[in-house]
Design goal:
Number of helices: 9
Strand order of the largest sheet: 3-2-1-4-7-5-8
Helix content: 40-55%
Radius of gyration: 18 Å
Distance between the termini: 56 Å
Strand content: 15-25%
Order of helices and strands: EHEHEHEHEEHEHHEEHH
Structural class: alpha/beta
């Protein structure tokens, strides 16, 4: 079979990263002989992202396009929008901020391409995975967020934003609520993914721009967790409610 993937990359004011990321992706996937497209989903950054993408397509001959959203905002809904407009059936999602190394794309897409997994994620918490240059408070927040999601999935790094899923699996999602940042966790639970594989990745600190994790995002995450617990364990909630 011909390996082909759609990379869906949400962006908001990531212009300095668009070119280096696209060129790197192109190098890796050409080397591995994987046909691909890059779909940037941009939340109306107005920072020159669209011009950079046009230039990459016309001058560098990279199969890249940008979908600019003016009505909606947010990383998770951007990912869903990208999926709905993707050309190929295997989706890979990654961050635009160069924290996710394109070198890992073939490993993350591989088990979806050969149908040996329902969901594959790049994990900081398995062999070969680690976090570089992270301050202690970031590590503590990450640990807490991961622990709270533990009963929802067997994955060691459910917070990961670097993952791959097949179009058919995505289309099985029930009650998808793309709010906040953790669309990977949302998909694993709502698509009822049974075979989840993890690939160890080294997670780098961002090179350009600001981190987008705010208190509001943390609260949205708690709301998202409640929704997912209700979806996965409705009986437990009903019983708790009855006996309280």
């Amino acid at each position: 079979y011909m390996a082909a993937i759609s990379l869906v990359i949400p962006t908001f004011r990531e212009a300095p990263n668009i070119r280096p990321l696209s060129i790197r992706i192109d190098e890796v996937l050409k080397r591995e002989n994987i046909e691909y497209e890059i779909v940037f989903v941009d939340d109306n950054s107005n920072d020159g992202t669209t011009d950079i993408v046009d230039e990459l397509r016309e001058k560098n001959n990279i199969p890249v396009r940008v979908l600019v959203r003016t009505k909606e905002r947010g990383l998770s809904s951007a990912v869903v929008h990208g999926f709905k407009n993707a050309k190929y059936d295997v989706f890979v999602v990654m961050d635009a901020d160069l924290q996710h190394d394109p070198e890992y794309i073939p490993k993350i897409a591989g088990p979806i391409l050969d149908k040996s997994a329902d969901f594959v994620l790049g994990s900081r918490n398995v062999t070969g995975g680690k976090v570089e240059d992270w301050p202690l408070h970031r590590r503590i927040i990450s640990w807490g967020a991961t622990s709270m999601a533990r009963p929802l999935t067997s994955s060691g790094d459910p917070m990961s934003g670097f993952f791959s899923i097949h179009k058919k699996t995505f289309e099985q999602a029930k009650g998808l609520n793309p709010m906040g940042y953790k669309i990977g966790l949302e998909l694993v639970v709502r698509c009822r993914c049974k075979k989840v594989q993890e690939v160890g990745i080294v997670f780098r600190d961002r090179e350009h721009g600001e981190s987008k994790l705010t208190m509001k995002q943390n609260l949205l995450y708690l709301r998202q967790l409640m929704g997912l617990y209700w979806f996965k364990y409705p009986l437990v909630f009903v019983l708790l409610f009855l006996f309280m």
